[in-house]
């Protein structure tokens, strides 16, 4: 609004009359004839150079209240009283002060992978999907309470419909790995919240990945303890990097006690 004032672009009755948008330059509120003023910029400059920062703040807020009052009077036929306008400006300034006093919440360190309690084995899974060739790569990394890698596996899959299917297939791989290695106490972590929630529920899944979810739920009894956890990408970075690189290189790898050389453990 101050920019409009400085360039005399406010829709005053004088300006509207000059642009032939109205036939009268009489103020709709006080009924006085408005006269053209060409010193808006000089007036604003004079005000701002002689006021303190606090005074400039109050001045701008009061100008804004006058502009709101003008619109209210024009469109609704109502106007603020002097007390109402003053209180409105005071409350608005107090609100701005309250925002300034709020503590700035900074984003802390990203969540990292955490080792499980002994003798639990934590299995992280992820998948990478190529929408052009409809192929995907599944990555499984199993680690113990010391953070040592027990096994890492990466598979390639063809004829995968969408990324959602790729995530479900990767999650299903944990079951095969756990049964194969004889794990009984397992925590499964992934960064796909939808897949994790579907695996945790006992109800029948009716989505397009229901076959994979049904197979996962069917094998829960093969483990003494099986817990599903959703984690952010930062805590699942190792599995994510393996899946992404495996899809690019189109390699299937099965490693015991280590991960590929191109990855860095978290």
TrEMBL record:
Q: Which InterPro entries match?
A: RNase_H-like_dom_plant, RNase_H-like_EbsB-rel, RNaseH-like_sf, RNaseH_domain, RNaseH_sf
| Entries under Pfam families matching the protein | RVT_3 (PF13456)
Q: Where is the RNase H type-1 domain?
A: 124-244
Q: Which GO terms describe its molecular function?
A: nucleic acid binding; RNA-DNA hybrid ribonuclease activity
From the Swiss-Prot or TrEMBL record, give the protein name. Answer: RNase H type-1 domain-containing protein
């Amino acid at each position: 609004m101050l920019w409009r004032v400085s360039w005399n672009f406010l829709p005053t009755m004088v300006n509207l009359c000059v642009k032939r948008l109205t036939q009268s330059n009489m103020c709709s509120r006080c009924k006085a004839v408005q006269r053209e003023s060409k010193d808006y910029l000089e007036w604003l400059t004079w005000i701002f150079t002689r006021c303190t920062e606090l005074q400039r703040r109050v001045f701008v807020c009061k100008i804004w209240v006058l502009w709101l009052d003008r619109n209210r009077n024009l469109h609704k036929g109502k106007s603020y009283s002097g007390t109402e306008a003053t209180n409105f400006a005071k409350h608005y300034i107090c609100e701005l002060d309250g925002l300034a006093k709020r503590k700035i919440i900074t984003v802390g360190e990203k969540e990292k992978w955490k080792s499980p309690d002994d003798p639990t084995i934590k299995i992280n899974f992820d998948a990478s999907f190529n929408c052009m060739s409809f192929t995907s790569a599944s990555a499984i990394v199993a680690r113990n309470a010391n953070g040592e890698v027990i096994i890492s596996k990466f598979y390639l899959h063809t004829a995968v419909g969408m990324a959602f299917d790729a995530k479900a297939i990767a999650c299903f791989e944990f079951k095969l790995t756990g049964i194969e290695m004889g794990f009984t106490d397992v925590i499964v972590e992934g960064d796909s919240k939808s897949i994790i929630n579907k695996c945790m529920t006992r109800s029948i899944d009716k989505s397009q990945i229901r076959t994979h979810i049904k197979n996962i739920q069917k094998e829960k009894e093969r483990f003494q303890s099986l817990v599903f956890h959703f984690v952010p990408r930062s805590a699942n970075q190792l599995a994510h990097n393996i899946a992404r690189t495996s899809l690019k290189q189109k390699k299937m790898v099965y490693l015991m006690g280590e991960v590929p050389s191109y990855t860095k453990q978290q």
